[in-house]
Predict the structure.
Amino acid sequence: MERKRINIFILFLILIVFLGAMGFLFAEKPLTNSIKDLTQRTEETRFTKIHHHKQYMSTFRELPSLHIQQHPPSENVKQLQETIDKALDHDNLEGAIIGISVRDENDEIIYQHQGNVRLIPASNMKIITAIAALEILGSDYQFTTDIQVDGEIKNGILEGDLYIVGKGDPTLQMDDFTMLAKQVKEAGITEITGSIYADDTWYDDERYSQDLSWINEYDYYGNATSALTVATKSHNDLLLGSIILEIIPGEEVGEKPKIDITPETDYVKIINKGDTVEAGKPLTLSDKGKHGSNEITIEGNIPLDSITYERRRAVWEPTEYALHSFSQSLEKQDILFSNERLSVKEVPKEAETIFTKKSAPLKEIIMPFMKQSNNGIGEVLVKEIGKVEAGEGSWREGLPVVRRVLADLGLDTTGINIRDGSGMSDRNLVSANFFTKLLYNIQDKAWFPDFKDSLPKSGELDHALSGTLHGRFLDEDMKGKVLAKTGNLHKVSTLSGYVTTDDGTKLNFSILINNYIKEPVFQIQDEIVTILAETNLTEE
């Protein structure tokens, strides 16, 4: 009898362990503080997400969760320094180069670790670009797009040429081209005997920043820069000169996958070599662009039970894409013209402007630029700064203006290297102390509230507010305490911005990590910022 009881007890324990294991495997993971339980994902394996009642598939691989120590709140600067030093003693930082700077409300550096070492800032460069743009252009600055005619309008017929003149607007979308076409019709034009031209000479014809790798020209984040382009709305972001491909399985095995392009356009040619295969088989789809063309080849297999496979791809020659989109809008307004007479050409001085469209103000444009880390807007801003200040919309003229702004703000620019506006260049070099000095010096500027609002905000579930900080600093105690710009390149991870401590002290910080091998390291950045947030400096 005793033996029978023992056996029953053992079976009961086994059942409890089994049920606990199953619960662990299938229960949804709660949202927890990124310092305790976040995993960083980078491209390689699959995951799914839900958005607007559609399921999408992207490629990511999960990295192991990083064990992070918990630290008691620091009661003075000395304790703070010791606690951050402990956080830096981590295997994942072995051999990495780390620059850290923390500056208080009195412009005093209260912590630094290799603070003057110049490092690759990645998208922390956008901090510099946004500041320069706000200083030179102003918060209320608006980009314009003109419709001009060179000829006479007689009885609804334009006996001459029609021009769409781009002046850098990075927010021009398909709906805007529809509106511009309607304005042409409202001007009394129902037929065009001449040509339709796109003028993008507001900027130079250099499409890519000097260090952009050729492997990025097909990706939306490496898009070509033009004074006339089409922006595609994607969640809270604007993809300049880019399209979105959505691929779903055919209805039966052996059928070609179905492909949707957003926005709808025939400017891009799709060669569909994909195949729908049985449910449960691996997804092997790939999409390949061809240099110098807008031909995209879809290859591989998509199983019947697959969700939507999404890719965001940059077009080749954005000005011609914009012209094509404009001509399609004119056709929909029943305006007659020859499709054989579409070209790119500078508008003559004697042409007459019949309509001007203005963009949203700069303070709204820098929201996706900063929160979603939009590379395309960054390069547009550099060229616009060059155009406004030096008369030439180019990196050659814009980047020196950026440096001048920094010098005027009291920064020593002899120790930095600036190569672009987005941070894609791995030749940009800035120190952590430089960033914190800059973040301190701008706080009395009239446009500072707009800059501050553009920074990703901690603890917000709304991606429009959290931006690239989404999923980080999720403890309720951290909500709204961190306003910071992220940055990521290959083996580069950066975070710079502002943090409010538990005692209400305002600090600004910069954490630049280069040349790490072990991943992830962003959780260590979060640990350091949380240490700052939990500090109580008023008792010193």
